[in-house]
Amino acid sequence: MSEAQKERGGVPDICDRLGERFLRLVPLKAAEVKGRKRPSAQEIRSISAGALDQFFAAAREERVRHRLGVIGRARVAFGLQQRLLKAGYPPPLVKQVLFALLAAAFTGDKR
Known about the structure:
The protein is an all-alpha fold and 111 residues long.
């Protein structure tokens, strides 16, 4: 197996799966907040009621399944950030979602 294949099986695949899940759960149109640059945490939660919880649960599963350490979690967060920005999500929303992801799914014990 080549280095590229090994790499492709790890962090990039996790980022792809999480990015696709986010795109399905929080469509871009719903993520646009009228006339404001920085949505509040409450506004982010209201975008798609349980969608973020489902997304965080998927991220938690990826963390546990792939035994992501601190560096792996950071690489996933960065890769996911790049994918969401490229998809057209507003930077303030991406920033807040990733911060919430780190707090909700990438910290604590393995549960």
